[in-house]
Fold this protein.
Amino acid sequence: MKTVFARTPYQGVVQIVLFNRRFYLVGAVGTVIAINASLFLPRRMSLTMMACALPLIFWLASSLIVSHYVYDRSSIYEFNWLSQVIPRTPTAWVNIHCGFDEISHTLVAKFPGANFQTLDIFDPQVMTEPSISIARRIKSFPVHAAAAHYDALPCASGSFEAAFLFFAAHELRRHDQRVLLFKEVARIVMPGGSIILVEHARDLWNFLAFGPGAFHFFSQRVWRSATFEAGLIVHSHRSITPFVHVYSLRKIA
């Protein structure tokens, strides 16, 4: 399925560089300094410096390659996988994000005629990572989002058949905050409805790709624990590439 606003071939990787530009700038400068310094140092010191620089060089390159693969070359934004995690086309859905929304316009096109709402739960006092603040400043979106707080969503109970959390929930860094968010999402989704959580995982694949940046993500165990405490179970789980996981959540009967 084609989205209303087509993505450019390198949109994903360019955004990753922009959102994390301090990391890439420091990494690039550090690499240049290490390579040049090694030319004038004694052999042993030179080899030691290059050995220390190699992981940085590898992760700079691998993070860009994997970001391009995930965000620009995979099917993640085509949503052809959605029919496998949602049993029926929802007549009402909600998308919850942190001010960076790349999917609402696609969902509008995919579910024509459905009632929908888009909520922005960004809280500068809670979500202090520089990358999300940068993302909010440099990107605008075609679908208006209502401001909301993660633990008090402005929606009636049982309002939606489906809810989407697309690379958003990890911006809540504390476990109790994520539990409160999932409790609220469970409240506004009707019985039998689906909650679609899409996230990277803190695992070997993402560590190899992003290095220490993988610690910004959470493990599958952490997600399952937070959702279970909120009264949700993982109805189905699949991967889109080895780096991204899709959890279809349902209320515990």
Residues 11-73 form one domain. Residues 127 and 171 are 6 Å apart (CA to CA).
